[in-house]
Amino acid sequence: MRLLLFVFLILSITCLPGFTATITVAQDGSGDVNTIQNAVAMAAEGDDILVLDSAVYDEDLAAGPLAGFAAQFTLKAAEGQSPTLRAVNSAERLGAIGAPGADLLGAFFAGCVGVVIEGMTFENPTTDINVLTISAAIALMDCNDVVLRNCTIRGAGGPGTAYSGFNFGVLVSGQTIPSAGIVIEDCLIEQCHYGIQILKGTAGEPTDPSVTIRGCTIQNCNGNGIEMDCASQPNPDEPSRSAIGDGHLIENTQIINCENAATLGGGKIVFRNCTLLGNRGSVNVDKQDSGELPILADFDQTAIVGSENIGVRVIGGRVSMTHCIVAGCFREGLYAAADAEEAIITVDHCDFYQNLVETPELFELRLEASIALDRKLTVSNTNVIGVAGILNGTIDDPNDYEEDAAIASYCNVLTDFESYINVTVDHEASFDPLYANPQTDAALFSRAGFQLQEGSPALAAASDGGFIGSQGPIQTRLKHWMMY
Predict the structure, then answer these.
(1) Distance between CA atoms of residues 177 and 208, nearest Å
(2) Using CA atoms, how far apart are residues 156 and 195, in angstroms rounded to an integer?
(3) I need a surface site. Which of 18, 183, 312, 358 has the fewest CB within 10 A?
(4) For the segment 229-263, what is each residue's pLDDT rounded down to a tens digit?
(5) In a 10 Å sphere around its CB, with 0-12 CB exposed, 13-18 middle and 19+ buried, how is residue 300 labelled?
(6) What SS3 string covers the chain?
(7) Which residues contact 94 (CB under 8 A, 6 or more apart)?
(8) Could you give the CA distance from residue 330 to residue 327 in angstroms, rounded to a whole number?
(9) Range in 85-89, 90-94, 277-281, 347-351 the model is least confident about
(10) How much is the pLDDT for 18?
């Protein structure tokens, strides 16, 4: 009887909610299994999968309930190890959605909820594509609350690599449900075609994902560092077409040497404290095929330096820029195109500095004339330093403009030629802001260089009596205290 009672107690404890097992993986046979796929197949809900070595696992991993496995688990490298999961691109997992043949989606997580992936490297060395014209190193489809942390994602090559379609480092897709609560943090994403791609399966369906990208470096991509075709939004105009949610947050992230740093194509998207350096193209705010207007793009404490094109190009969206630096771009710092579906742009406490490197005939900020119904550029408390300032209208015909579409207040515009054309100006100023050490070279840039030296007239010229620009005064060090 005592033995039966003891067995009953043990079984009761092991069946309690929250009990988890750890499944170990090692290629030399010292773990429970020798492939990551076998570990995923063995895992029950909430289990941990621990990879014990730094081996290269050549596998097309499939995980999640849509692949027939547990929805929630942890996959991580053991301390001091750096395993690589490299796609072999032979798995056929998309037949159910009309895409037969090898899917080329690498590590494929489908329908996962609460998965944590940590310390892994994911590679896909292919430049090929499936019948959907895509491939990826890691794909998250219809997933919620997935964390990808301290991982490296690597594609087939960097700038100059030929791609026949769209190859992604990380692909996040909402096919039947919004992929909400996805977090990508402290990851290195490099040598891909597109670094991170976020989309939904069908335009006009409310399956917009919600993703946070935090503390990442995205570099040396042949295409966009980040492309967000769609995003949820807190209060969509048409809930039947746009998912309700917080949208995307990109913070404390660097994007370096990519074609375009980012393309933002629908919903709510916030860039906060990001640094975009030496990219060959622009940050594009532009409706994509599966996205929905409005695009609500907020840039806060973000620097865009050394772009070989326009800094921020708006082809359709409502854009807010606060405490940002745009410097050393080859064309305009900010440009709203004539064919924009809407362009409502607010700039406050920013620095536009010595852009127009290769196009001095243009303007630091330009709102081009258009037949669009909603167009407005409002600039306040901002330094504009360069060749020419703010233009509302058409370069070739300054009389072709929309009256009252551009307003500048409490701005400091110091330029070689025209400061304003067709702009309503309130409290005009023109002086050297006395930056500490401004740099437009992406390799030398620091935000501290755009702080204001003591004695700068910009220190007390803003609408509230405070500083103009993005950074404020130089922070002086505390004097050493001495005891007597």
Answers:
(1) 8
(2) 11
(3) 18
(4) 999 999 998 999 999 999 999 999 999 999 999 99
(5) middle
(6) CHHHHHHHHHHHHHCCCCCCCEEEECCCCCCCECCHHHHHHHCCCCEEEEECCCCEEECCCEECHHHCCCCCEEEEECCCCCCEEECCCCCCCCHHHCCCCCCCCCEEEECCECCEEECCEEECCCCCCCCCCEEEEEEEECCECCEEECCEEECCCCCCCCCCCEEEEEEEEECCCCCCCEEEECCEEECCCEEEEEEECCCCCCCCCCEEEECCEEECCCCCCEEECCCCECCCCCCCCCCECCCEEEECCEEECCCCCEEECCEEEEEECCEEECCCCCEEECCCCCCCCCEEEEEECCEEECCCCCCEEECCEEEEEECCEEECCCCCCEEECCCCCCEEEEEECCEEECCCCCCCCCCCEEECCCCCCCEEEEEECCEEEECCCEEECCCCCCCCCCCCCEEEECCEEEECCCCEECCEEECCECCCCCECCCCCCCCCCCHHHHCECCCCHHHHCCCCCCCCCCCCECCCCCCCCCCC
(7) 100, 103, 105, 130, 132
(8) 9
(9) 90-94
(10) 55
Least confident of 198-212, 392-406, 470-484: 470-484
CA 74 and chain centroid, separation: 24
Average the pLDDT over 22-51 and give the result: 98
Task: State whether the Cα torsion 230-234-237-240 is positive or negative.
Answer: positive
Q: Which two tokens stand for residue 78?
A: 């053991």
For residues 21 and 37, give the distance between their C-alpha atoms in angstroms, rounded to a whole number: 16
d(CA 346, CA 428): 18
Q: How confident is the model over 129-148, as a mean pLDDT? A: 95
Rounded CA separation 126/362 (Å):
41
Question: Residue 89 and residue 107: Cα distance in Å, rounded?
Answer: 10
pLDDT above 80 for 481: no
Fill in the amino acid letter for 456. S
Could you tell me if 112 and 70 are in contact, meaning their C-beta atoms sit under 8 angstroms apart? no
In the block, residue with structure tokens 């096919």: 175
User: In percent, how much of the chain has pLDDT > 90?
Assistant: 85
Q: Which two tokens stand for residue 391?
A: 């233009």
**309 token code pair:** 């094109």
Average pLDDT, the chain: 92
Q: CATH 1.25.40: does it fit domain 61-460?
A: no
